[in-house]
Amino acid sequence: MAETLYIPSTTQRAEIYAALQPQIQALIESETDLIANLANVSAVLKEAFGFFWVGFYLVKDQQLVLGPFQGTLACTRIDFDKGVCGACYRAQKTLIVPDVDAFPGHIACSSASKSEIVVPLFKNQAVVAVLDVDSDHLADFSAIDQAGLEAMMQTVEKLF
Length: 160
Ligand code: SME
Fold this sequence. Notes:
By secondary structure, the chain is α+β, with helices and mostly antiparallel strands.
């Protein structure tokens, strides 16, 4: 695999997502191990955008269990009826939360987290994991992030 990541020097996130997509594809094609790949996807997103927290929760034992991530210490298990991650699991669609303090039931792993996007990953039409991205800025996520991350997760979910 290429060990250097190419990140275009632009603040336009759509351009950055477009540049990352083939690199994520190449990364995943050259390694079959799920955890190794999820770890690198977290690292790529953290490095490319500087998000406060980026990581995966995996569906295990009827809960969402912390997987590979980049960022500060996080809660390890989330019930399906808890938090933004649980809401994403239940809704089976991407959730964008512009102000986490205004989201009933949001789980605050860090008080620095202000907004959040959670994207589901599917296998056989069932959610098998969620990607959780937290920002320390309010309203940091838009339809551009949703499109970029959903496209990326359609590549990543092939690993499951
Ligand atoms: N905020 C998430 C919990 C995970 S941490 O942000 C890493 C939630 O409400 O589900």
